[in-house]
Amino acid sequence: MTYLEQIQNDLKRAMLNRENDKMRTLRLLLSKLREKKIELIRDLQESDELGVLKKAAKERQDSMQTYAAAGRNDLAEVEKQELLIIQSYLPAELDDAALETIVRQAIVQTGAATPGDLGKVMSASMKALAGRADGRRVQEIVKKLLGV
Asked: What is the pTM of this model?
């Protein structure tokens, strides 16, 4: 079952159960997935769908931080609830130990030795991770291992 199908089924259940917050978020996700399908002019592949979901989650995280910094905790809470719903569709992220192992392999693969090689290591690491970790976490580990 694709993410699109799963979200559509969950939307139907949310409508039957009158879960307004969940309905709003799922409708938003469906809209973004349809927009991506139109943009690409083809059916979405799993990687396309996953990219849309990750982008939506990142938008929620950024908005949540912005609202919290502005003292709008009510809006930050709404964003947090939406983020939790979106994250339920995303694959689980790797823990720090697994991330560090993959980054070490990327360092060996690229032959990186200096802090100037950060970009090469990041590129190789993100390819190997294929969306299973946030870029910020990966960057922190790369910096730590390269001594930046």
From this structure: 0.75
